[in-house]
Queue: 2 jobs
Job 1
Amino acid sequence: MKKLVILRRASQAFFLFSFIYLLWLTLRPIVYIPLLFFVAILILTFVIGRFFCGWVCPLGTIIDICGVKVKNRGVNLRVIKYYILGLIVVFAFLGIQIRWIFDPLVITARFVSLNLIPSVTLALDKIFIFLLKSLNFYSPLYDIYRGLKSSILGVKIYYFPHSLITLGFFLFILALLGITKRFWCRVVCPMGAVYSIAARFSLLRRRVDECSHCMLCSVNCRMSAIKEDSDYRKGECILCMDCVYSCPDRATRFTWPGKKTNAQSKRGISRADFLFLIGAAFLLSGFRFKEGAAKKRLIRPPGVTDEREFLNKCVRCGNCMRICPTNGLQPVIFESSIAGIWTPHLVPEIGYCEYNCNLCGRICPTGAIPKLSLEAKKEKKLGTANIDKDICLPWSQNKECIVCQEHCPIPTKAVKIYDEVFQGRKIQKPYVDSSLCIGCGICQNKCPTRPLRAIKVQP
Amino acid sequence: MRIESVFNRLPGIKISRKAFVRLCGIGLGGMILNSYLFKLALGKEDVSSGRPHRSVKTLHDLVVAKGEDPYLMTVKAIEAIGGMERFVKKGGIVVIKPNIGWDRSPEQAANTNPYVVGALVDMCFKSGAKRVNVFDITCNDAKLCYQNSGIEKIARDKGANVYFTDDWNFIKAGFDYESPMQGWPIYRDALECDTFINVPILKSHGLTGLTLSMKNLMGVCGGSRGLMHFDIATKLAHLTDFIKPDLTVIDAYRALVRYGPTGGNLADVVDMKTLIAGTDPVLCDSYAAKLMDRDPLSIGYISQAVKINLGNADISKADILTLTA
């Protein structure tokens, strides 16, 4: 009985499922580990070691599941993650946030929000439709389907045109498994680096009594934390407990210290390391925000005013895009500079900003989208609508339309009507009062002209 | 010189050329089969020629109820017209189609008063209905509309099925005369029912002037509804002829007199405390238009409906009972 391994797997499954559950069905910001919680994990790490990576981290769990069949190899690149951590810290001091590229929680949340939930709900929906259409239409199954629509299926199936890029990034991380088990966690993950530093001081440690030097533990260690001489790198061990059971002599144990054990030889940051960090920081200056480079074409979520501050606060977790009821918030891919990748922007053709809704601000884990009361949100201006009179049906063809005016949610209507008599008929022609318009984009969303909409929101 | 395959260089994965070709073939075949099966399973499109006409004898052409309590007014009005038993078969399926189009509260008067819907649900069940369906294809987000209009909660508490519409469950409209609505997708549940009760709210509307019972039927249409706005009068008249609602109950308890159909400002809402019930949608609409000081025939779709003999727009000739609840 591998009791500890079973326990670890149960813990991993629990945290993975609760991660997906929270993202799927609740209004809780997921990526954000509140400071208190983070401090608690850090203190625990000081006591028992880098348990977070082995027992909690959802990305680590997915990597473990996908890497069951992967052959284990010793890869001596584990220093890289400290460099990455260093880079993130250096950039943070320079006022640029690049955590979003490497944070495992963000990566998993983005994958779940933009890929997993849309594809699973789509598949379930299609299966239900197929069953309903091939069976008796109005059966109890239809009621079950309708019930599910207000819970796990959602009223609408979410759609993200550029989600393939998110999927590609996620699959790339999984493809790193081709090199060895847990390659990402060993070599890249900066969060692992933080815990690794803390875990060097942990009290709980691995002990081997009367080792026969069969090397089985060292060969099988998924983090290659065990050295040739049955000693181990404490900062690398994620307490997966495999070595306890792979040891033929049952000589491996994890114990609390009775007396002081020999301290680990530590390598401080060398001059070369320091110079590397500074150099890399200069090389990566492409991430620098440039005034006006991106702001021209993007409609940001309500309440976002300072583009630079927004880019630095947004961790690109995809929570807002997953919660937006109209599916209008979409990840930026090519529309902005590289610093803006995966940040949310409103695409009115896909979905508009719901007037009576402030969910994106409520769910944003970092406050990049400010938390606003419903009343305050209704006054936030996202942009201004503009009518293209060459396309607009009443203006260009004297047809009846004014769909934009009807849908405008402003109590006094930001889209106003100008009456004109044409061939004895009254034609109502819309125009925008830009002082009233908040740029929610419902007019653009509902405008019937194709392929181009006659009314467009400009930020 | 032998060049090693990229696949061979990747650790753990070995694949021969034959296997690679086979894999590609299976993938491609799977995709083609998949799309074919999808079409086979989901591509079916039904055409309907509309609901059958049922003439129900009522005690009056039109009943107008005035009062303070919308629930009581609805009950009294339906009793005065002859009772719900005339419309609802024992074990029948009833569709109640309120206006839940907008994410607004009942006080803002953009959606049907929830108590009117609740009263109708109660009466349908009392008359022996097996199932009462309440739905609308909304303009704002469906979840928010259903919640904030208050209709979802009240109707569900009374035992009705309140559900979100599915974007795949439409039937094409087939007319036996020339119609701009030919082939327009209509929600299946609206057609496959024994009784259709149309419960609009009286409010102003940009293009047509007023939203009344015929305009409310747009809520069972799918497709690009914005395109319905061109030649809307004919389209709405033909749509009403297609659906043939058995009973029309116009909620004029609160009426939005300006900036419709969305409104939002309480100053634009006028308390009329009136409810109109009848079987002739044109007559109901005409009376409601009069309430708003409009000439019924100035509303495009009413005059168009009169033109195709859908009903009577002349209020002076109708038998109207006014009661106070």
Job 2
Amino acid sequence: MIITTRRTALFAGASLLAAPGLVRAQGAPIRLGTLTPLTGAGGPYGPVMANCVKSVVSDVNAAGGVLGRQVAVVSEDDQTNPEAGVRAARKLIDVDRVAAIMGTWASAVTTAVAPLCWESKTFLATVSGADSITALPHSGWLIRTQPNTTLQGRKFGEYAVELGAKKVFFMAPQTPFTQSQLANMKPPIDRAGGSIELLIYDATKPSLRTEVDQVLRARPDLIVLGGYTPDTTVLLRDIFRAGFRGKLLAYAYSVNQQMLSSLPNDVTEGIYTLAPSPAEGSGGFDRVKRIVGNDNPDPYTCQIYDQINLILMAMAVGNDATGQGIRDNIRKVSQGGGDRVDNAVDGLRAIAAGKKVDYDGASGPCDFTDAGDITDCKFRYEQVRAGRQTLIRIA
Amino acid sequence: MIEALLQALINGVIAGTILAVPALGFTAIFAVLNYPNFAIGALATVGAYAGWVGNTALGLPMVAALALAFAATAVAGLVVQWAAVKPLESAGALMMAIASLAAGLVLENALRFGFGNDLRGYDLPLLRDWRFGEFRVGPQQVQNFALALAAMGLLWAFLRYSRTGRAMRAVADNRDLALLRGVDPARVAAVTVAVGAGLAGMGGMLVGLDTSVDPLVGTRLVLSIFAAAVLGGLGSIPGAVAGAIAIGVAEEVAVLAFNPAYRLVVGFVVILAVLTLRPAGLFGARAS
């Protein structure tokens, strides 16, 4: 009996050593992290984003993984708060040893987390918009799928002019993009002979009556709302109570369906919103629709879908599952011509067949500058009518 | 400029009166149990959600929803007290304060787990403000102001005329003497926690009525509540009211003088100044 047991053990040990590399490697999955806001102002988006990544990875694992290894996703909550974001990023980097972190949402969180990533050679893919993020000395360790504030600010300024505004007031909490948003809104408004002023408010204040009084004293004909959903809700109530009859223009991520269902229709009626538009009608967009189970997935979920697909393919094309491998190879799969793919399963198959791929995703073409910004993006212009976002145009 | 100042004063007095309700709860618990209960923010959130459920799911009118907010938060406050704070009573006030802070985080996240992060609005029409020349006041503000005054009036009558209320004041004034007179300290502590937490819940609901309800609605108030209680004198009931109104006015008037982004500084500066110049606060004697 003892002999049998010993033989069995020896046999088992020898078999393990003799097993093909693939089988042993499957014991050590490639680890990737999502750091999305599951709570706080970004709370409506983060859980959907994290689930989207898991769904893409599950499809890839079912098709054999990447470089013969399975992929594991570790999801952490940045609480839409830089301090919590840094703690969660430290855990992902030091404990889970992820090769990449995806999905940081608030610009303040991304700004805080980015240095940890480049110092530890962890790749960072973000959906934050502040100009300052890609201006950080990240040496290629960071990409973003969200258009920067220069582009967004200019679009807001041009749209304010198109809406006939001469006197614009920009009300926003203090964020890393507030100043650059204002600076980029100003030129189109100035050119049209108008003017714009800024009031920065405290986003945690339960009432913004006095701030609204300050703004209305300047008699603006259009107010741009630059906050997140909770503070914009407070602001809209106070603007309505104050009897403002001018136009309102806001980010679509703050005036979202969740806000529209929490406020009476007459408070939100007529608000114009602007948002980077996902690539509606594309194969990637249709896949995201199926993953999230609705026909109108938010732009951030579309963007993180693109991030995970690009990262998985970059590892495969570089034959390197580390952060360094992703950094060095992501542009080889995102741009430069080749077989058009909109998902990693098809992309990995093409790469295995020795083909060059060029990914076009759910959020857009996903081509990046050296600084990490996307080169092209469409915007979605909408207006709230009877408590629902109504599409005006995509341009 | 004068109009702007007067309008800010009106806004500040109304905001301060609403802030006074949870500040009263905070200071009452401090007076009797001698520790700052930092779960007060999460308790205010419990009240905001309880009132919201009462109003939207059960169809209760405002006053009944407010009573439900009080009752639900009183129970939540007692659970926090018995489960988290009381076991650490012998470790001192600091440990009790930390325990309450931790219990507050648990409560806040339990609410988030149950209700999600979505913003919730009460089933109330939003009305435009009444205008009086250059000034304006909101009907909801006036209603909340009246409800806050009524809550404070009821608390005053309870402390002044009821046997339990008198026992609470006796323990707050001189615990040993009260014990000698046969006051049951466990009962007084329980009633104080229930009333204090209930007031926090009412305050949370009043703020939720004016804005909207989310898991952080009460947490955003904690600094202002603490600053109000410190300014009035920790443990002083009239002090909490005066402190809250002063903080409410200061926060609104500060908007005219400084960049509104620095509003939080008001609370910190008040706490710093009071602790430096008059640690007992405006009305407090015990705190010194």
